[in-house]
Amino acid sequence: MAAVAPATRWRLLLLLLSSVGLGAVGAPQSPNIVLLLMDDMGWGDLGVYGEPSRETPNLDRMAAEGTLFPNFYSANPLCSPSRAALLTGRLPIRNGFYTTNAHARNAYTPQEIVGGIPRSEHLLPELLKEAGYISKIVGKWHLGHRPQFHPLKHGFDEWFGSPNCHFGPYDNRARPNIPVYRDWEMVGRFYEEFPINLKTGESNLTQIYLQEALDFIKRQQAQQHPFFLYWAIDATHAPVYASKAFLGTSQRGRYGDAVREIDDSVGKILDLLRGLSIGENTFVFFTSDNGAALISAPRQGGSNGPFLCGKQTTFEGGMREPAIAWWPGHIPAAQVSHQLGSIMDLFTTSLSLAGLEPPSDRTIDGLDLLPTLLQGRLVDRPIFYYRGNTLMAVTLGQYKAHFWTWTNSWEEFRQGVDFCPGQNVSGVTTHTQEEHTQLPLIFHLGRDPGERYPLSFASAEYLDALGRVTPVVRQHQEALVPGQPQLNVCNQAVMNWAPPGCDKLGKCLTPPESVPEKCSWPH
Amino acid sequence: MAAVAPATRWRLLLLLLSSVGLGAVGAPQSPNIVLLLMDDMGWGDLGVYGEPSRETPNLDRMAAEGTLFPNFYSANPLCSPSRAALLTGRLPIRNGFYTTNAHARNAYTPQEIVGGIPRSEHLLPELLKEAGYISKIVGKWHLGHRPQFHPLKHGFDEWFGSPNCHFGPYDNRARPNIPVYRDWEMVGRFYEEFPINLKTGESNLTQIYLQEALDFIKRQQAQQHPFFLYWAIDATHAPVYASKAFLGTSQRGRYGDAVREIDDSVGKILDLLRGLSIGENTFVFFTSDNGAALISAPRQGGSNGPFLCGKQTTFEGGMREPAIAWWPGHIPAAQVSHQLGSIMDLFTTSLSLAGLEPPSDRTIDGLDLLPTLLQGRLVDRPIFYYRGNTLMAVTLGQYKAHFWTWTNSWEEFRQGVDFCPGQNVSGVTTHTQEEHTQLPLIFHLGRDPGERYPLSFASAEYLDALGRVTPVVRQHQEALVPGQPQLNVCNQAVMNWAPPGCDKLGKCLTPPESVPEKCSWPH
After folding, report:
1. Furthest-apart CA pair in chain B: how many Å?
2. Can you tell me the distance from the alpha carbon of A272 to that of A158, in angstroms, rounded to the nearest whole number?
3. CATH of the domain at B260
4. pLDDT band with cut points at 50, 70 and 90 for residue A17
5. Taking phi first (over 0 means left), then psi (-120 to 50 degrees means alpha), and beta for anything else, what does residue B139 get?
6. Could you confirm whether B508 is annotated as catalytic?
7. Which residues of A touch B53 (CB under 8 A)?
8. Is there a single domain that holds both residue B291 and residue B352?
9. B138 by DSSP, 3-state: which?
10. Which top-level group of life is the source organism from (chains A, B) (predicted)?
């Protein structure tokens, strides 16, 4: 993980560039950083990734002007751990975003969760401060909603959005509606001041989030601040929504309407950067938090293209993500990089862009992608797939080894909860937890991206792949120091009853008695 | 089917263009036509269609310079009928390329087939002669190998290739090896003069086919003839092969090696057209004869992207094809057309390019795509999916109605013949022939390209879709005059024992006694 050299080199490069006049009048020393993080959007949802309706002209153009990663991964098949990994550069097993309540369970931050991002974790915006960045999060935080977890306590300077998913509407008695914050205080709740019409799918939230992004960019540009914008919007997470102008416009139904509005918004963000002449001084990265939620398909869920299963699983459909890097004048246009990339790389890469080193007192899983993006260099590195504290699989080069296979329980499956609709690979998409730690199932993802044909245990190729995977996994496991699990305890009393600012709005609700209990994570 | 107007208009346009000087020195009056027809290549095999390894830079560039069709269909999920449909502009049920030996069976032209393309059918090269075109077929003919079916008796002026698939090697006793022809006579046999190493996958056939194409183009250009090149190569049909320079170079294994060599060859063909300055006078279309053969995956079969099942089936994976139209200076660059297209359209479109009308004494199923390609016009038209003489399904707009579902028999399936590996949609991918003619299964292909979620029979959407599909199907069936079925009778005596020219090579074999029998088509 050669983070030191490229970061230093990059800073030198910047100094050189500005000395030869490329640094425009008052341009910040370090490039702005815009991370566009989608919610439950799948690898197969963009035209440039082969979605047949091809309704993402702006994202496709972004790819044509930048670098497309076909082998880019989330750090977890579920939202909160994935986002915690992005902002810390560390696997959820390290930063505490996992549960030990049962074996191999996905966990996240519903509003009854007690835990959240530990104070000991260094978040990206916190570190970017050292280089003078102003940071804003627009959209879903999802790293804990109790006061100590507030994003402005973890380095962000501004926030517009919600701490949890936009589920609801709730009755504000058994369960409060999710609040929407501006900075420190709530400014309303979903389904109240921020309506989402579940019947029609209409909501103008993406337009609001877009405006927040455009305003922030303009303000920072006017003040000549380097900025970090984390645009974590959620229109493609069920219940999916779109504003009136986009509803009914997609060939793909409501989910497609949401994608079209997002695509349009990304276009407007890039247009603004171009219009302000800061495109060449702004690094933009587009990706998603986990695979498409096939349980919500087809009307409320996206596409994972040719990959197996979706969100909640550690098959490729659950964790392989669309990913586009854009930085005109620096990242060459129309490139495809087969670097195995991780959402955690956005942490290290952003620090490198800012001329900073990642923290040296802890393990950082993210790589600096700049050598890949700027010089086409490829680094051999593993991708780890976890559920809870269980290492389910690892990918190294073209080989993916599954140590455990599981989709969900027979009980859930029989009730209609299906993470792999229409797909069934015997011995692979299992409904019981199957251990393969001694003799992992190994797939060659180049020949078999859909994980349908495990290599024969007797083949030379299997033995060779196993021989390469085994020491990498052993080294990972031996060195691993798991963080304190944050997602074990739930309590109805910690829900969003009375967020800061509720009094000004007359929106404070009375919490029930505090009863801590083990959270139940069924899959 | 407004074929008259565009064809006339096009001719006028050409006259106008040449009168203002765009017709270069001695340029032919009508554009050259190059049809690049792949064998068993799937929709998902090209980078531009989302194949994760993205190893088709030349085809991707062709798409960037032309029009990509995401909704383009074969006329049959199997090779011979599909090719007969391309060259006649007519459904196999009309041109005779089907069987009635059993219900809903795929049939083709193995070397024991007695039938072939009927004399009464007008093939594209035959018609193009009227406009002065010289035509060559390079590669697989597959419309019958007995003397009366020879391509040079059906309008082609030149042939280099084989009448049947490159299966083998055979012992030349029970079964002869397939001959390779140059024009009227054989010049050798596969696995003899034209080796394919089944163990290594090495064969230089694609290089030979490429050279044939380049030579033909140069010769016709030198003689100022408008030409039609039908480049029907077969490296992606099992047994897949590649030449030494490409073997082992793909991330996708041997199948990918074959694709890379084809991609490279397409690049060389387009480069030659550009180099000879006839790119703007040459219409090039790339497509495939049917979906990827998933029975041969992963080592010898391709990818159908997000679609259901593959070759042999009437699900999208069996019949939706990659399709790119290229004609610089005429077809605008980087377009995507959602016109429902058919391989049969290449017949009508080619005639239109040549300023010819399709035959008026018979039903032609192909549309003229020029209004779509040149003016972006969309035409509402059905796509029919047949197995044998059974109408299995129809697509109209976004709706696909299945009247019959079947993959293959339980017996075959239990023996390991699987057309939908890893896929299983309850009640859809059936192993018994299920009739739905009264109440078809209907899918919305925009929301559900993978055919996983049949519309509810009770929904208003279902009733509306059914109401639109029903009259179209009724009209089709009422007007249908099936051709004489050509694929019912087999006979060992008609195999390629003694093709013309065998005597000169000392390669004539003695046929066995003539015993006509019903061909057996298991699925």
Report:
1. 69
2. 20
3. 3.40.720.10
4. very low
5. left
6. no
7. 70, 338, 446
8. yes
9. strand
10. Eukaryota
pTM, two decimal places: 0.94
- Residue B435 pLDDT exceeds 50: yes
CA B221/CA B34 separation, integer angstroms? 13
Shared domain for B345 and B256, answered yes or no, is: yes
Q: What is the pLDDT of residue A341?
A: 98
Paired strand residues for B321: B72
Helix ranges restricted to H, B198-298: 205-222, 254-275
List Cβ neighbours of A375 (8 Å cut-off, separation of 6 or more).
none
Residue B424 is given by DSSP the state: -
Instruction: Give me the helices (H) in B20-116, please.
Output: 57-64, 79-88, 92-95
Task: Compute the distance between CA of residue B372 and CA of residue B395 in angstroms, rounded to an integer.
Answer: 19
Which among B51, B253, B450 has the least Cβ separation from residue A422? Answer: B450
B257 is in an annotated binding site: no
Contact list in A for residue B306 (CB cut-off 8 A) is 44, 50, 52, 303, 305-306
The pLDDT-based confidence of A259 (bands split at 50, 70, 90) is very high
Give yes or no for residue B25 having a pLDDT over 80: no
State which residues form the domain around A467.
390-479
B28: pLDDT strictly greater than 90? no
For position A2, what pLDDT does the model report? Answer: 35
Reported ipTM: the value is: 0.93
Q: Which of B79, B420, B490, B519 is catalytic?
A: B79
Inter-chain Cβ pairs, chain A and chain B, closer than 8 A: 116
* Residue A284 identity: V
Averaged pLDDT of chain B: 95
* Residue in B469, B432, B451 with CA at minimum distance from that of residue B315: B451
Q: Is the pLDDT of residue A5 over 80?
A: no
Separation in Å, CA A479 to CA A381, A473, B113: 16, 10, 66
Q: Is the pLDDT of residue A496 over 70?
A: yes
Residue pointed to by tokens 């299964």: B441
pLDDT tens-digit readout, B400-414: 999 999 999 999 999
* Rounded (5°) CA angle B365-B370-B372: 90
Residues A266 and A323 occupy one common structural domain:
yes
Interface of A with B (CB under 8 A): 44, 47-54, 68, 70-71, 250-253, 255-256, 297-299, 303, 305-306, 308, 336, 338, 398, 421-425, 444-453
Domain limit, last residue, from A361, A380, A399: A380
> Structural domain tally of chain A?
2
Instruction: For chain B, report the end-to-end CA distance as a whole number of angstroms.
Output: 33
Residues B453 and B397 in one domain: yes
**Owner of token pair 């000549």:** A224
**A365 and A409 housed in the same domain:** no
pLDDT at position A236, please?
98
Name, in order, each residue with C-beta under 8 angstroms of B12's C-beta and a sequence gap of 6 or more.
none
Q: HSE (CB half, 13 Å, CA atoms) of A398?
A: 17
Q: Which residue has the higher pLDDT, A246 or A27?
A: A246
Asked, for residue B330, whether it belongs to a domain, the answer is yes
